[in-house]
Amino acid sequence: MRNHSGYWAFAVHRVSGIALALFLPVHFWALGRALEGAASLDALLAWTEMPLVKFAEWGIVLLLAAHFAGGLRILALEFLPWRDWHKSLAAAAAAASLAVGLAFALAL
Amino acid sequence: MGDGEIGTGNEASGAKLSVRIWRGARQGEFVRYQVPRHVSQTVLDVVTYVQRVLDPTLAYRFACRVGMCGSCAMTVNGVARWTCRTHVDKVAREGRLEVAPLRNLPVIRDLVTDMREFFDKWARAQGRFRGGATRHEDVARIRPDSAARMQVEAGIECIGCGVCYASCDVVARNPDYLGPAALNRAWTLVNDVRDIARTDRLRAVAGDAGCHACHTQMGCTERCPKNIAPTASIAGLKRETARAALRGEW
Amino acid sequence: MSVRGETMLWIAQRASAVLLAVCVTVHLVTMTYAIRGGLSAVEIFARTRGSIGWLAFYTLFVVAVTVHVPIGLRSALGEWLGWRGRSRDMVLAAFALALGALGMRAVLGVFA
Prior knowledge:
The complex is a heterotrimer of chains A (108), B (250) and C (112). Chain A has helices spanning 5-32, 38-47, 51-79, 89-107.
Protein backbone atom coordinates (compact mmCIF):
# COMPACT_ATOMS: atom_id res chain seq x y z
CA MET A 1 0.00 0.00 0.00
CA ARG A 2 2.90 2.30 0.67
CA ASN A 3 5.21 1.55 -2.22
CA HIS A 4 4.04 4.08 -4.75
CA SER A 5 5.00 7.70 -5.29
CA GLY A 6 1.53 9.06 -4.53
CA TYR A 7 1.71 7.78 -1.00
CA TRP A 8 5.03 9.50 -0.39
CA ALA A 9 3.70 12.70 -1.93
CA PHE A 10 0.88 12.60 0.61
CA ALA A 11 3.20 11.78 3.52
CA VAL A 12 5.61 14.62 2.72
CA HIS A 13 2.72 17.02 2.24
CA ARG A 14 1.15 16.15 5.56
CA VAL A 15 4.34 16.08 7.64
CA SER A 16 5.57 19.36 6.14
CA GLY A 17 2.15 20.88 6.77
CA ILE A 18 2.21 19.91 10.43
CA ALA A 19 5.76 21.21 10.82
CA LEU A 20 4.79 24.53 9.24
CA ALA A 21 1.68 24.73 11.41
CA LEU A 22 3.94 24.45 14.46
CA PHE A 23 6.47 26.94 13.07
CA LEU A 24 4.07 29.71 12.06
CA PRO A 25 2.85 30.80 15.51
CA VAL A 26 6.47 31.07 16.59
CA HIS A 27 7.30 33.07 13.47
CA PHE A 28 4.37 35.44 14.08
CA TRP A 29 5.21 35.85 17.75
CA ALA A 30 8.86 36.61 17.00
CA LEU A 31 7.97 39.22 14.40
CA GLY A 32 5.43 40.72 16.78
CA ARG A 33 8.40 41.86 18.77
CA ALA A 34 8.77 44.53 16.14
CA LEU A 35 5.92 46.25 17.96
CA GLU A 36 8.26 46.82 20.81
CA GLY A 37 10.52 48.91 18.65
CA ALA A 38 13.65 48.75 16.57
CA ALA A 39 15.94 47.53 19.34
CA SER A 40 13.75 44.52 19.96
CA LEU A 41 13.69 43.65 16.27
CA ASP A 42 17.45 44.16 16.01
CA ALA A 43 17.99 41.68 18.84
CA LEU A 44 15.87 39.18 16.94
CA LEU A 45 17.74 39.79 13.69
CA ALA A 46 21.06 39.31 15.45
CA TRP A 47 19.86 36.00 16.79
CA THR A 48 18.89 34.86 13.30
CA GLU A 49 22.49 35.34 12.15
CA MET A 50 23.54 32.33 14.20
CA PRO A 51 24.50 29.40 11.91
CA LEU A 52 22.12 27.00 13.62
CA VAL A 53 19.24 29.37 13.08
CA LYS A 54 20.22 29.90 9.45
CA PHE A 55 20.20 26.16 8.99
CA ALA A 56 16.77 25.88 10.60
CA GLU A 57 15.54 28.69 8.35
CA TRP A 58 16.73 26.77 5.32
CA GLY A 59 14.99 23.67 6.65
CA ILE A 60 11.75 25.57 7.00
CA VAL A 61 12.02 26.97 3.49
CA LEU A 62 12.62 23.43 2.22
CA LEU A 63 9.52 22.22 4.06
CA LEU A 64 7.58 25.13 2.66
CA ALA A 65 8.79 24.39 -0.88
CA ALA A 66 7.86 20.72 -0.45
CA HIS A 67 4.41 21.59 0.88
CA PHE A 68 3.90 24.16 -1.89
CA ALA A 69 4.95 21.74 -4.64
CA GLY A 70 2.76 19.00 -3.18
CA GLY A 71 -0.11 21.45 -3.01
CA LEU A 72 0.29 22.39 -6.66
CA ARG A 73 0.21 18.66 -7.47
CA ILE A 74 -3.10 18.31 -5.62
CA LEU A 75 -4.57 21.33 -7.38
CA ALA A 76 -3.49 19.89 -10.74
CA LEU A 77 -5.02 16.48 -9.95
CA GLU A 78 -8.26 17.98 -8.70
CA PHE A 79 -8.85 20.72 -11.25
CA LEU A 80 -7.13 19.88 -14.51
CA PRO A 81 -8.65 17.39 -16.95
CA TRP A 82 -7.13 13.98 -16.31
CA ARG A 83 -4.02 13.01 -18.21
CA ASP A 84 -1.80 9.98 -17.86
CA TRP A 85 1.23 12.06 -16.94
CA HIS A 86 -0.59 13.11 -13.79
CA LYS A 87 0.82 9.95 -12.27
CA SER A 88 4.28 11.49 -12.49
CA LEU A 89 3.35 14.66 -10.65
CA ALA A 90 4.72 13.43 -7.36
CA ALA A 91 8.20 13.10 -8.82
CA ALA A 92 7.91 16.50 -10.48
CA ALA A 93 6.87 18.09 -7.19
CA ALA A 94 9.78 16.52 -5.35
CA ALA A 95 12.24 17.77 -7.95
CA ALA A 96 10.79 21.27 -7.96
CA SER A 97 10.88 21.63 -4.19
CA LEU A 98 14.46 20.42 -3.98
CA ALA A 99 15.42 22.97 -6.63
CA VAL A 100 13.81 25.77 -4.64
CA GLY A 101 15.48 24.61 -1.44
CA LEU A 102 18.84 24.58 -3.16
CA ALA A 103 18.30 28.01 -4.67
CA PHE A 104 17.43 29.43 -1.29
CA ALA A 105 20.47 27.82 0.31
CA LEU A 106 22.71 29.36 -2.32
CA ALA A 107 21.08 32.75 -2.00
CA LEU A 108 21.75 32.77 1.71
CA MET B 1 4.04 -24.27 -26.70
CA GLY B 2 6.59 -25.05 -24.04
CA ASP B 3 7.58 -27.85 -21.76
CA GLY B 4 4.25 -29.66 -21.75
CA GLU B 5 0.96 -29.56 -19.87
CA ILE B 6 0.65 -28.97 -16.17
CA GLY B 7 1.00 -32.24 -14.29
CA THR B 8 3.67 -33.78 -16.54
CA GLY B 9 7.16 -33.01 -17.59
CA ASN B 10 8.11 -30.06 -15.39
CA GLU B 11 7.48 -31.86 -12.16
CA ALA B 12 10.20 -34.24 -13.16
CA SER B 13 12.58 -31.30 -13.52
CA GLY B 14 12.06 -30.75 -9.79
CA ALA B 15 11.76 -26.97 -9.87
CA LYS B 16 9.96 -25.93 -6.72
CA LEU B 17 8.39 -22.76 -5.45
CA SER B 18 8.19 -21.87 -1.79
CA VAL B 19 4.93 -20.08 -1.04
CA ARG B 20 3.67 -18.62 2.26
CA ILE B 21 -0.10 -18.51 2.52
CA TRP B 22 -2.17 -16.85 5.24
CA ARG B 23 -4.12 -19.37 7.30
CA GLY B 24 -6.64 -18.31 9.89
CA ALA B 25 -8.78 -15.23 10.15
CA ARG B 26 -7.78 -11.99 11.87
CA GLN B 27 -5.55 -14.11 14.08
CA GLY B 28 -3.53 -16.61 12.16
CA GLU B 29 -0.17 -17.14 10.58
CA PHE B 30 1.61 -17.66 7.30
CA VAL B 31 2.12 -21.34 6.50
CA ARG B 32 4.79 -22.42 4.03
CA TYR B 33 4.09 -24.84 1.18
CA GLN B 34 6.33 -26.25 -1.54
CA VAL B 35 4.66 -26.40 -4.93
CA PRO B 36 6.01 -27.53 -8.29
CA ARG B 37 7.03 -24.74 -10.58
CA HIS B 38 5.61 -24.58 -14.11
CA VAL B 39 5.93 -22.40 -17.18
CA SER B 40 3.34 -19.60 -17.30
CA GLN B 41 2.16 -20.51 -13.83
CA THR B 42 -0.12 -17.97 -12.16
CA VAL B 43 -0.55 -17.33 -8.47
CA LEU B 44 -4.07 -18.75 -8.74
CA ASP B 45 -2.56 -21.97 -10.13
CA VAL B 46 -0.34 -22.11 -7.04
CA VAL B 47 -3.19 -21.57 -4.58
CA THR B 48 -5.32 -24.11 -6.43
CA TYR B 49 -2.53 -26.69 -6.28
CA VAL B 50 -2.16 -26.20 -2.54
CA GLN B 51 -5.88 -26.66 -1.93
CA ARG B 52 -6.29 -29.69 -4.22
CA VAL B 53 -3.11 -31.58 -3.45
CA LEU B 54 -1.58 -30.37 -0.19
CA ASP B 55 -4.32 -29.05 2.09
CA PRO B 56 -8.03 -29.26 1.23
CA THR B 57 -8.93 -26.99 4.16
CA LEU B 58 -7.51 -23.90 2.42
CA ALA B 59 -10.32 -21.42 1.65
CA TYR B 60 -10.05 -19.11 -1.36
CA ARG B 61 -12.25 -17.56 -4.06
CA PHE B 62 -12.10 -17.69 -7.83
CA ALA B 63 -14.54 -18.01 -10.69
CA CYS B 64 -13.64 -17.25 -14.30
CA ARG B 65 -9.84 -17.63 -13.85
CA VAL B 66 -9.32 -15.60 -17.04
CA GLY B 67 -9.26 -12.01 -15.74
CA MET B 68 -12.89 -11.05 -16.21
CA CYS B 69 -14.68 -11.43 -12.89
CA GLY B 70 -12.29 -10.08 -10.25
CA SER B 71 -13.18 -12.82 -7.71
CA CYS B 72 -9.60 -14.01 -7.25
CA ALA B 73 -8.22 -10.71 -5.93
CA MET B 74 -5.70 -11.27 -3.10
CA THR B 75 -2.61 -9.62 -1.65
CA VAL B 76 0.43 -11.02 -3.45
CA ASN B 77 3.83 -10.03 -2.02
CA GLY B 78 2.16 -7.03 -0.39
CA VAL B 79 0.27 -5.81 -3.45
CA ALA B 80 -3.43 -6.35 -4.22
CA ARG B 81 -3.76 -8.18 -7.54
CA TRP B 82 -5.90 -10.58 -9.53
CA THR B 83 -4.14 -13.88 -8.89
CA CYS B 84 -5.33 -15.43 -12.17
CA ARG B 85 -3.57 -12.63 -14.04
CA THR B 86 -0.40 -12.61 -11.98
CA HIS B 87 2.38 -14.75 -13.34
CA VAL B 88 4.60 -16.24 -10.69
CA ASP B 89 7.64 -15.33 -12.78
CA LYS B 90 6.72 -11.66 -12.56
CA VAL B 91 6.33 -11.43 -8.78
CA ALA B 92 8.21 -14.24 -7.06
CA ARG B 93 11.43 -12.78 -5.77
CA GLU B 94 14.15 -15.43 -5.58
CA GLY B 95 11.47 -18.07 -5.91
CA ARG B 96 9.51 -16.73 -2.91
CA LEU B 97 5.85 -15.91 -2.87
CA GLU B 98 3.53 -14.63 -0.14
CA VAL B 99 -0.24 -14.75 -0.56
CA ALA B 100 -2.63 -13.07 1.87
CA PRO B 101 -6.26 -11.94 1.80
CA LEU B 102 -7.19 -8.44 0.54
CA ARG B 103 -6.50 -5.67 3.03
CA ASN B 104 -9.07 -3.35 4.60
CA LEU B 105 -11.74 -6.04 4.72
CA PRO B 106 -12.64 -8.49 7.50
CA VAL B 107 -11.19 -11.96 6.89
CA ILE B 108 -13.67 -14.81 6.96
CA ARG B 109 -11.06 -17.52 6.62
CA ASP B 110 -7.64 -17.84 5.00
CA LEU B 111 -7.79 -15.94 1.70
CA VAL B 112 -11.50 -15.16 1.77
CA THR B 113 -12.68 -11.70 2.85
CA ASP B 114 -16.13 -10.43 3.79
CA MET B 115 -17.06 -8.09 0.94
CA ARG B 116 -20.28 -6.83 2.50
CA GLU B 117 -18.99 -3.44 3.66
CA PHE B 118 -17.47 -2.88 0.22
CA PHE B 119 -20.87 -3.29 -1.42
CA ASP B 120 -22.75 -1.53 1.37
CA LYS B 121 -20.63 1.54 0.75
CA TRP B 122 -21.40 1.26 -2.95
CA ALA B 123 -25.09 1.50 -2.04
CA ARG B 124 -24.45 4.34 0.44
CA ALA B 125 -22.77 6.31 -2.32
CA GLN B 126 -25.99 6.00 -4.32
CA GLY B 127 -24.10 3.84 -6.76
CA ARG B 128 -27.16 2.71 -8.65
CA PHE B 129 -28.97 4.19 -11.59
CA ARG B 130 -32.30 5.94 -11.02
CA GLY B 131 -34.16 6.72 -14.20
CA GLY B 132 -37.21 8.87 -14.79
CA ALA B 133 -38.35 7.52 -18.15
CA THR B 134 -40.81 4.73 -18.80
CA ARG B 135 -41.13 2.23 -21.61
CA HIS B 136 -43.45 4.65 -23.36
CA GLU B 137 -40.76 7.31 -23.84
CA ASP B 138 -38.27 7.23 -26.67
CA VAL B 139 -34.84 5.74 -26.01
CA ALA B 140 -32.52 8.45 -24.68
CA ARG B 141 -30.15 9.83 -27.29
CA ILE B 142 -26.66 10.24 -25.89
CA ARG B 143 -23.71 11.09 -28.09
CA PRO B 144 -20.80 8.77 -27.22
CA ASP B 145 -18.34 11.60 -27.77
CA SER B 146 -20.11 14.07 -25.49
CA ALA B 147 -17.94 15.25 -22.60
CA ALA B 148 -20.24 13.72 -19.98
CA ARG B 149 -20.45 10.36 -21.70
CA MET B 150 -16.66 10.19 -22.07
CA GLN B 151 -16.36 10.71 -18.33
CA VAL B 152 -18.75 7.78 -17.86
CA GLU B 153 -16.79 5.60 -20.29
CA ALA B 154 -13.57 6.20 -18.39
CA GLY B 155 -14.98 4.65 -15.24
CA ILE B 156 -17.77 2.31 -16.29
CA GLU B 157 -15.70 -0.87 -16.69
CA CYS B 158 -15.39 -1.41 -12.94
CA ILE B 159 -16.36 -4.95 -11.92
CA GLY B 160 -16.20 -4.42 -8.18
CA CYS B 161 -13.15 -6.59 -7.50
CA GLY B 162 -12.06 -4.63 -4.44
CA VAL B 163 -8.39 -4.17 -5.40
CA CYS B 164 -8.64 -0.37 -5.22
CA TYR B 165 -10.41 -0.52 -1.85
CA ALA B 166 -7.67 -2.82 -0.53
CA SER B 167 -4.98 -0.46 -1.82
CA CYS B 168 -6.30 2.73 -0.26
CA ASP B 169 -4.61 4.08 2.85
CA VAL B 170 -7.53 6.40 3.60
CA VAL B 171 -9.85 3.38 3.75
CA ALA B 172 -7.40 1.85 6.21
CA ARG B 173 -7.41 4.97 8.41
CA ASN B 174 -11.02 6.09 8.09
CA PRO B 175 -13.56 3.29 8.56
CA ASP B 176 -16.41 5.44 7.24
CA TYR B 177 -14.68 6.36 3.98
CA LEU B 178 -16.79 5.16 1.05
CA GLY B 179 -13.73 4.23 -0.95
CA PRO B 180 -12.57 4.55 -4.56
CA ALA B 181 -14.87 1.98 -6.21
CA ALA B 182 -18.11 3.34 -4.75
CA LEU B 183 -17.10 6.92 -5.52
CA ASN B 184 -15.97 6.03 -9.03
CA ARG B 185 -19.37 4.43 -9.71
CA ALA B 186 -21.15 7.46 -8.27
CA TRP B 187 -19.18 9.68 -10.66
CA THR B 188 -20.26 7.65 -13.68
CA LEU B 189 -23.87 8.15 -12.57
CA VAL B 190 -23.43 11.87 -11.90
CA ASN B 191 -22.39 12.11 -15.55
CA ASP B 192 -25.27 9.98 -16.80
CA VAL B 193 -27.73 12.49 -18.19
CA ARG B 194 -30.62 10.02 -17.87
CA ASP B 195 -30.18 9.70 -14.09
CA ILE B 196 -32.55 11.75 -11.91
CA ALA B 197 -30.95 11.28 -8.48
CA ARG B 198 -28.13 13.81 -8.90
CA THR B 199 -28.73 15.94 -5.79
CA ASP B 200 -29.19 12.94 -3.51
CA ARG B 201 -26.06 11.39 -4.89
CA LEU B 202 -23.93 14.51 -4.47
CA ARG B 203 -25.08 14.76 -0.88
CA ALA B 204 -24.23 11.08 -0.38
CA VAL B 205 -20.69 11.36 -1.71
CA ALA B 206 -19.63 14.65 -0.10
CA GLY B 207 -17.92 15.15 3.22
CA ASP B 208 -15.37 13.42 5.43
CA ALA B 209 -16.75 9.98 4.62
CA GLY B 210 -16.92 10.79 0.93
CA CYS B 211 -14.88 12.34 -1.81
CA HIS B 212 -13.38 15.05 0.43
CA ALA B 213 -11.44 12.46 2.39
CA CYS B 214 -9.43 11.47 -0.68
CA HIS B 215 -5.82 12.64 -0.39
CA THR B 216 -4.79 11.79 -3.95
CA GLN B 217 -2.42 9.08 -2.79
CA MET B 218 -3.49 7.28 -5.97
CA GLY B 219 -3.09 3.74 -4.68
CA CYS B 220 -6.37 2.94 -6.42
CA THR B 221 -5.27 4.27 -9.79
CA GLU B 222 -1.90 2.57 -9.43
CA ARG B 223 -3.41 -0.87 -8.82
CA CYS B 224 -6.70 -1.00 -10.74
CA PRO B 225 -6.51 -4.05 -13.03
CA LYS B 226 -8.86 -2.39 -15.49
CA ASN B 227 -6.74 0.80 -15.66
CA ILE B 228 -9.52 2.95 -14.29
CA ALA B 229 -8.43 6.10 -12.47
CA PRO B 230 -10.73 6.48 -9.45
CA THR B 231 -8.60 9.45 -8.40
CA ALA B 232 -9.86 11.31 -11.47
CA SER B 233 -13.47 10.35 -10.75
CA ILE B 234 -13.15 11.45 -7.14
CA ALA B 235 -11.61 14.75 -8.28
CA GLY B 236 -14.67 15.19 -10.49
CA LEU B 237 -16.94 14.60 -7.50
CA LYS B 238 -15.00 17.20 -5.50
CA ARG B 239 -15.59 19.75 -8.25
CA GLU B 240 -19.25 18.84 -8.72
CA THR B 241 -20.13 18.87 -5.02
CA ALA B 242 -18.39 22.24 -4.66
CA ARG B 243 -20.21 23.68 -7.65
CA ALA B 244 -23.55 22.43 -6.36
CA ALA B 245 -22.88 23.70 -2.83
CA LEU B 246 -21.94 27.17 -4.07
CA ARG B 247 -25.08 27.30 -6.20
CA GLY B 248 -27.19 26.24 -3.23
CA GLU B 249 -28.40 23.10 -4.98
CA TRP B 250 -28.17 21.12 -1.73
CA MET C 1 -20.20 19.05 10.79
CA SER C 2 -22.71 18.68 7.96
CA VAL C 3 -21.52 17.40 4.59
CA ARG C 4 -22.35 20.78 3.14
CA GLY C 5 -20.10 22.37 5.75
CA GLU C 6 -17.30 19.94 4.91
CA THR C 7 -17.70 20.75 1.23
CA MET C 8 -17.32 24.45 2.07
CA LEU C 9 -14.16 23.65 4.04
CA TRP C 10 -12.73 21.94 0.98
CA ILE C 11 -13.52 24.99 -1.16
CA ALA C 12 -11.96 27.33 1.42
CA GLN C 13 -8.86 25.16 1.60
CA ARG C 14 -8.29 25.15 -2.16
CA ALA C 15 -9.06 28.87 -2.51
CA SER C 16 -6.70 29.81 0.33
CA ALA C 17 -4.08 27.50 -1.21
CA VAL C 18 -4.14 29.44 -4.47
CA LEU C 19 -3.90 32.73 -2.57
CA LEU C 20 -1.02 31.39 -0.50
CA ALA C 21 0.80 30.21 -3.61
CA VAL C 22 0.98 33.83 -4.71
CA CYS C 23 1.71 35.28 -1.26
CA VAL C 24 4.41 32.75 -0.42
CA THR C 25 6.23 33.34 -3.69
CA VAL C 26 6.21 37.10 -3.20
CA HIS C 27 7.25 36.69 0.42
CA LEU C 28 10.19 34.37 -0.29
CA VAL C 29 11.50 36.56 -3.08
CA THR C 30 11.27 39.77 -1.06
CA MET C 31 12.76 38.15 2.03
CA THR C 32 15.72 36.76 0.10
CA TYR C 33 16.32 40.20 -1.36
CA ALA C 34 15.93 41.92 2.00
CA ILE C 35 18.11 39.52 4.00
CA ARG C 36 20.94 39.58 1.49
CA GLY C 37 21.57 43.22 2.17
CA GLY C 38 21.77 42.49 5.89
CA LEU C 39 19.25 45.13 6.84
CA SER C 40 18.92 46.40 10.38
CA ALA C 41 15.61 47.02 12.10
CA VAL C 42 15.76 50.76 11.44
CA GLU C 43 16.42 50.16 7.73
CA ILE C 44 13.59 47.62 7.57
CA PHE C 45 11.14 49.97 9.23
CA ALA C 46 12.13 52.74 6.86
CA ARG C 47 10.91 50.56 4.00
CA THR C 48 7.87 49.01 5.62
CA ARG C 49 6.30 51.41 8.07
CA GLY C 50 3.51 53.40 6.58
CA SER C 51 3.38 51.29 3.46
CA ILE C 52 -0.31 50.72 2.80
CA GLY C 53 0.41 48.36 -0.07
CA TRP C 54 2.54 45.97 1.97
CA LEU C 55 0.17 46.26 4.93
CA ALA C 56 -2.71 45.16 2.72
CA PHE C 57 -0.67 42.37 1.17
CA TYR C 58 0.45 40.90 4.49
CA THR C 59 -3.03 41.23 6.00
CA LEU C 60 -4.34 39.15 3.11
CA PHE C 61 -1.49 36.70 3.72
CA VAL C 62 -2.43 36.34 7.39
CA VAL C 63 -6.10 35.80 6.52
CA ALA C 64 -5.18 33.08 4.00
CA VAL C 65 -2.96 31.38 6.61
CA THR C 66 -5.71 31.57 9.24
CA VAL C 67 -8.06 29.72 6.88
CA HIS C 68 -5.60 27.22 5.41
CA VAL C 69 -3.66 25.95 8.44
CA PRO C 70 -6.53 24.83 10.71
CA ILE C 71 -8.40 23.11 7.87
CA GLY C 72 -5.21 21.29 6.95
CA LEU C 73 -4.67 20.19 10.54
CA ARG C 74 -8.28 19.01 10.76
CA SER C 75 -7.85 15.94 8.55
CA ALA C 76 -4.46 15.11 10.10
CA LEU C 77 -5.99 15.17 13.60
CA GLY C 78 -8.92 13.09 12.42
CA GLU C 79 -6.92 10.43 10.62
CA TRP C 80 -3.80 10.18 12.78
CA LEU C 81 -5.24 10.82 16.23
CA GLY C 82 -8.80 9.67 15.63
CA TRP C 83 -10.00 13.04 16.90
CA ARG C 84 -13.33 13.93 15.33
CA GLY C 85 -16.52 15.75 16.32
CA ARG C 86 -17.27 19.15 17.78
CA SER C 87 -14.30 19.39 20.14
CA ARG C 88 -11.86 19.14 17.26
CA ASP C 89 -13.62 21.92 15.34
CA MET C 90 -13.86 24.18 18.40
CA VAL C 91 -10.17 23.79 19.23
CA LEU C 92 -9.21 24.47 15.62
CA ALA C 93 -11.42 27.57 15.53
CA ALA C 94 -9.67 28.83 18.64
CA PHE C 95 -6.30 28.06 17.05
CA ALA C 96 -7.36 30.01 13.95
CA LEU C 97 -8.23 33.03 16.06
CA ALA C 98 -4.93 32.83 17.92
CA LEU C 99 -2.99 32.53 14.68
CA GLY C 100 -4.86 35.47 13.22
CA ALA C 101 -4.26 37.59 16.30
CA LEU C 102 -0.53 36.81 16.40
CA GLY C 103 -0.27 37.37 12.68
CA MET C 104 -1.97 40.75 12.73
CA ARG C 105 0.16 41.78 15.71
CA ALA C 106 3.25 41.06 13.62
CA VAL C 107 1.83 42.80 10.54
CA LEU C 108 0.92 45.92 12.48
CA GLY C 109 4.27 45.89 14.24
CA VAL C 110 6.17 45.89 10.98
CA PHE C 111 3.94 47.88 8.66
CA ALA C 112 1.72 50.21 10.64
